[in-house]
Amino acid sequence: MTHIEPKILLVDDREDNLLALEVILQPGGFTFVRANSGRQALKILLTEFDFALILMDVNMPNLNGFETATLIYERDKLKHIPIIFITANNYGDENMFKGYQVGAIDFILKPIKPEVLRAKVGLLIDLYNKNRLLLEQEHRLIEVNRNLQIEMGERKAADEKVQQVNRKLLENLSQLEKVNQDLDRFAFMASHDLQEPLRKIRIFSGMLNNKYKDVLQEDSKMVTRIDKSAERMQTLVSSILALSKASSDKVEFEKCDLNLLLAEMIANMDEEVVEKNVTILVEPIPSLFVSPALMRQLFQNLINNAIKYRSNEVALVIKISSRLNAGNDYYNEAHNLNDCLIFVEDNGIGFDQKYSEEIFGILQKLHDSSEYEGAGIGLTLCRKIAELHHGFISARSIEHKGSVFTVSLPLFLEVAV
Questions:
Q1: CATH 3.30.565.10 region(s) of the chain?
Q2: Which of 103, 174, 303, 395 has the fewest CB atoms within 10 Å, counting from its CB?
Q3: Which fold has domain 7-112?
Q4: Which residues pair with 342 in a beta bridge?
Q5: Are 246 and 384 in contact (CB under 8 A)?
Q6: Percentage above 90 pLDDT, the chain
Q7: Is the pTM of this model over 0.90?
């Protein structure tokens, strides 16, 4: 994709506010176009349609922000441009609902918090860039399809082949759309500030659907899809918040019987284990100074990961064992001497060893998301938990043979903390 700086239209009747917005967002590499009134914004939008975002003050003379947004969205060419309202007033739900009705994506209250503004603008620009990439790829596929039709049109015997190629192109386009949805990597964008607009979207879409379902008829499905999309984003935000919480909370360590912790956790998974024909074998693990809550989350994520990527050919067996790292084998390269090494081994589908580090990256998934659900944060959280314990986690795997995740934890963490 050709790199083009995203354009942002800034609309405010005060020059100092326009300058402040540019200063806050300047590091993002955006192109800014200023408008000192709603009328000037409409005049600019008569000839320019390629804006990624509009940041608009609500309280302006003549045409206020709500009125300007209504006029903007009367034009089909402008309906794709998201609008964020900036206001010094803390509107109630009813007035905020009015803003959402005219097309607002979100509200930002004055005085503006630079980190909040950058985060929200960054998220929308990220989605804008992904949409541009998808459109460019779609145009390329359409062009390839057209060329193939021209080339094969004179050869009647190849008509079936053209149809097969067309179907394949459409399948690729569908897969590409799913991949782009899964590539919403706005890492560390999750915050309580992001949860609130998502909650409002779900509330207002539900209100809209309940109140106008009979009027909207078939179009009510669009409102339902809006709600489902917000729900999926909430799941992703919650996962990122779990990672952020593990990073920011103060960790309290205590001597913990990991055998008892594992036994209680596996007992709570009894229904899922039976349903999916999973066998979990646990060998004795020494008591260690750990955070029980974080260790429960680590084991839960590793076991869930093994269950998710189990093989269809054989029943899943998960073996959890441990030993001391004596420094005379493979583990000495990645883990510290005198650590307790805890192994979580499975006979699942495995992965290519060259991805052994990539799988711990945030939002990294090696397998088809349509077949294997999840946010792609579980293993990232496992590594963060290991690091919070002054330890480490690594993985070894052979495709179709299974994987071994090795967690090393210090034996003497109580002294180190």
A1: 254-416
A2: 174
A3: Rossmann fold (3.40.50)
A4: 322, 407
A5: yes
A6: 22
A7: no
